[in-house]
Amino acid sequence: MLRESQLAEIAQNPYRQDFPLLAQHSEICFLDSAATAQRPEAVLAAERSFYENMNANPLRGLYRLSVEATEAIEDARAHIARFIGAVDEAGQARSDEVVFTRNASESLNIVASSLGQAVLEPGDEVVISIMEHHSNLIPWQQVCARTGAKLIYLRPNEDFRITGEELEAKIGPRAKIVSVTQVSNVLGVENDIAAIARRAHEMGAYVVVDGAQSTPHIKVDVRQMGCDLLAFSAHKLGGPMGIGVLWGKADILDMMPPFLTGGEMIDSVTEDGAVWAPVPQKFEAGTQDAAGAYAFDADLTYLDGLGMEAVERRERLLAEYLCDSLAALDFIDIIGPREGARHIGAVAFNVHGVHPHDVASILDASNICIRAGHHCAQPLLAWLDVENGSTCRASVAFYNDKSDVDRLVEGLKTVWTVFHG
Q: 166 - beta bridge partners?
């Protein structure tokens, strides 16, 4: 349980005013940031500014506007590298390790297709966890079917932890790729990526991390984690929709074949073949979302100003208060750890005898926004034997406060009354 000083900390909210949708609609209680975050004014202004002041196709022109658009992309690339700890020994950003994609799903598909094509053979193993989002599960199903590799699942214990014993049992000498989420979008738990990476590298496997649910909430450092590739989306951090990131160690990206072909990803083309451009352009066929990259850069500047340590602290307190408040309702089942401190961002739950879709619809009548469904994690919910194969999910961000959780609790009491009198 939180102390009085901690409750007072999350009762204050100096951030809501930075987000136009929330500032203009005080009636909205937004608890679905795990699906997408709200956008700060700095992001909206930056995207508009790009189109008003430097709108040109990057990389394709020698005139001023095109050069400025190119610089905007490259500045964003360097900022992203610093944000995730992708720096060299001198502390300089490894911009060449940052590939722009549409979203985390596309990033993971690139890795599954390109890395899978490069390294997998019949009899090899790809290891993922049962808690993966479909975006980090289906691509591996597909590439295993094409290559003859076998898909192996890591499963957490009753405390929702993937143990060292499980790692030793499942990541063996046949493992070539281990791809896991850092934070589950359903359970809210953080996996020990460093431990997973150590075991995987001992076995000679590559380590891929789905960072979609971790990068918005905790300080991510790819070097400290020891992973080889990382995927995440801008929109979950408050950046624009439609732009994502694939980070990878330079030598691994160099070894991987391109996923898409066409303009800007080539060095030269003849009638008989082509020579690819160096990384990261090799994976960026066609016109890139330069305005999105520019706005994402502005978003990271906003987050830098807040400090990710402060963001993480506030969100951990909010998640703990959310989990504790739900646990106090005797008609609620929490799907995941009961300890609020174990949840990062998201808490999944169900109301006894009420379908999650009904819960979400009734809450919506009071302008309370939560998620309801399988959360693109159907194998996890089937393995947990969750009724109806779906749950409610409330997820917080730093622009939430104690009153949002209190409104949810009152809304759930109304739900219970509607169905049970």
A: none
**Is the separation of the CB atoms in 186 and 130 below 8 Å?**
no
Residue-range domain boundaries for the chain: 4-30+307-420, 47-304
Single out the residue of 360, 362, 380 nearest to residue 370, CA to CA. 360
d(CA 377, CA 396): 19
Q: Can you tell me which residue has the tokens 């300890």? A: 339
Q: Which residues are catalytic?
A: 376
Distances (CA, A) of 71 to 216, 290, 302, 367: 25, 10, 20, 42
How much is the pTM?
Answer: 0.96
CATH 3.90.1150.10 is the classification of domain 4-30+307-420: yes
The pair of three-digit structure tokens given for residue 374, joined into one six-digit string: 């399988």
CATH T-level assignment (fold) for domain 47-304: Aspartate Aminotransferase; domain 2 (3.40.640)
Identify the CA nearest to 292 among candidates 108, 85, 49: 49
The one-digit pLDDT tens for each residue of the chain (421 residues) are 899 999 999 999 999 999 999 999 999 999 999 999 999 999 999 999 999 999 988 877 789 998 999 999 999 999 999 999 999 989 999 999 999 999 999 999 999 999 999 999 999 999 999 999 999 999 999 999 999 999 999 999 999 999 999 999 999 999 999 999 999 999 999 999 999 999 999 999 999 999 999 999 999 999 999 999 999 999 999 999 999 999 999 999 999 999 999 888 888 999 999 999 899 999 999 988 999 999 999 999 999 999 999 999 999 999 999 999 999 999 999 999 999 999 999 999 999 999 999 999 999 999 999 999 999 999 999 999 999 999 999 999 999 999 999 999 999 999 999 998 7
CB count in 10 Å sphere of residue 68: 17
DSSP 292-355: HHHHHHHHHHHHHHH-HHHHHHHHHHHHHHHHHHHHT-TTEEEES-S-GGG-SSEEEEEETTB-
